[in-house]
Amino acid sequence: MLDAKEINDSYNNAKRIQDSILPSETYIRDIFPDSFILYLPRDILSGDFYWIEEVNETIIFAVADCTGHGIPGALLTVLCHNALNKVLKEYGLLNPGHILDKTLEILSGDLQKSGNNIADGMDIAVCTLSGNHLQYSGANNPMWIIHNGVLTEYKATKQAIGFVEMPNPFLTEELFLTTGDIIYILTDGYSDQFGGIENKKYKTIRLRKLLSSIYHEPIIEQKIILEREFIEWKGSNDQTDDVCIMGVKI
After folding, report:
1. What mean pLDDT value characterizes the chain?
2. Angle at the Cα of 213 (from 208 to 219), degrees rounded to 5?
3. Using an 8 Å Cβ cutoff, are 163 and 151 in contact?
């Protein structure tokens, strides 16, 4: 039986492996100079991950929430990350809806190889940006855009990436951005955090109001404010879930 030190070493080694699939801050800054990633795993390992790739003139970026957290969630992040890379590199798909359709097909096949009905999978928001041309598709996870101080939500398709017997195609939203617009994609960990005076969930509506009140701040300052608010709200409570928010200013 492993002792506490061996278990801790195993977790830390697994974390290094998981961290290796995440884009470095330098890589992100090269692609998106005016951006932030707020990434707060609940445990040492995370079921959330973020993904950024560049193909010619198109930037593909995503934030994903895999079933669970800790070790099970981390295993799924690797599986889902590999599926996304396969879609991009082997199939060359750049339309976000098509990316999700093919990712669902690949992941569903991988999860069913054992013959068991595995219900695990991921929720995800995927965007592609070419110049000021933005496309978005989501599996349960929305995209928020702040334009001229007004936050607009672009809703996701109500379907996870995983085993689905009769999947529906993922819908793609398309819009053109202007300088100063901010894109936010995120998992539900922030809004699901319990805390505050009444020990209730933070909730999406409160997070939308917070972002609408700080959008004019420098993008890196927004990250600081978000993290401080989360810590203050959580207080002495345990963290409820993994947290991941990506903000990109045009």
Report:
1. 91
2. 90
3. no
Q: Where are the domains of the chain?
A: 21-249
Fold adopted by 21-249: Phosphatase 2c; domain 1 (3.60.40)
DSSP string, 107-155: HHHHHTTTSS----EEEEEEEEEETTEEEEEEEB--EEEEETTEEEEEP
Check if the beta carbon of residue 149 is closer than 8 Å to that of residue 212. yes
Q: Cβ distance 47 to 66 under 8 Å?
A: yes
Pick the range with the lowest mean pLDDT from 12-26, 164-178, 196-210: 12-26
How far from the centroid of its chain's Cα atoms is residue 105's Cα? 20
In angstroms, rounded to a whole number, what is the distance separating the alpha carbons of residues 160 and 188? 14
pLDDT digits (tens, 9 = 90+) for 83-126: 999 999 999 999 999 999 999 999 887 766 654 556 678 999 99
| pTM of the entire predicted model | 0.93
Report d(CA 46, CA 54) in Å as an integer: 24
